[in-house]
Amino acid sequence: MTEMVHDMITVEAPLREVYDQWTQFEEFPRFMEGVEEVRQLDDRLCHWRIRIAGATREFDTEIVDQLPDERIAWRTVGGDVKQKGVVTFERVDDAHTRVRLSMEVEASGVAERAAKAMGVVENRIEGDLHRFKHFIEERDRATGGWRGRIRPADSPGGTAPADPATPDDLPPPAPGTGPPYPGPV
């Protein structure tokens, strides 16, 4: 059972600061509900431990496309959770940035199906974006930043992943929110 989730928020901070903060994955537990730990293993891989509907899940994610100040796309590559998604960043003006998040989450276990039925995933993502907004606005600057470029073809072995989050298979945008990414890869 797959769930598509889309949300958007405008942050009162410059594009570079917002993007840089989002690349600090190990900071996610500070504003993402249910995220207990994120360990960045290398430029592409992170290990996550989350709690949803009373169950703890661990999984790894791979960044399959990262273009500074524009987008970060990922997919799970191992563990208890199956998902893929993209977050995009759009300059509104010098002091405001629009953040769009589109995710496809597969509800595989009893806890995940219960969470889907209760709208937990959608509510968490909406809350997470609001907490991210407050986190970056209150700090007035990012806690760090990584500005490297990752392309789908940069995966181990030098070929695109078997199931990359590319423009053809990214979750579609919510109605009225525009494309899930700013243009072709």
Give a structural overview.
With 185 residues, this protein is α+β, with helices and mostly antiparallel strands. The protein is 19% helix and 37% strand. The protein has 3 helices and 7 strands. The protein has helices at residues 15-22, 110-117, 120-139, and strands at 2-11, 35-40, 45-52, 55-67, 71-79, 82-93, 96-106. Strands 1-7-6-5-4-3-2 form a 7-stranded antiparallel beta sheet. A hairpin with a 3-residue loop joins strand 4 (55-67) and strand 5. It is globular and about 45 Å long. The two termini are 29 Å apart. Mean pLDDT is 82; it is low at 157-185.
Number of helices: 3
Mean pLDDT score: 82
N- to C-terminal distance: 29 Å
Structural class: alpha+beta
Regarding quaternary structure, what we see is single chain
For the largest beta sheet, what order do the strands appear in spatially?
Answer: 1-7-6-5-4-3-2
Q: Beta-strand percentage?
A: 35-45%
**Rg over alpha carbons:** 15 Å
Low-confidence sequence ranges: 157-185
What's the order of the H and E elements? EHEEEEEEHH
Task: Give a quick account of the main beta sheet: strands, pairing sense, barrel closure.
Answer: 7 strands, antiparallel
Tally of strands: 7
Shape label: globular
Helix content: 10-25%
Keywords:
185 residues, alpha+beta, 7-stranded antiparallel beta sheet, globular
Topology:
Elements: E1 2-11, H1 15-22, E2 35-40, E3 45-52, E4 55-67, E5 71-79, E6 82-93, E7 96-106, H2 110-117, H3 120-139
Antiparallel strand pairs: 1-7, 2-3, 3-4, 4-5, 5-6, 6-7
Short description:
This protein has helices spanning 15-22, 110-117, 120-139, and strands at residues 2-11, 35-40, 45-52, 55-67, 71-79, 82-93, 96-106. It is an alpha+beta fold.
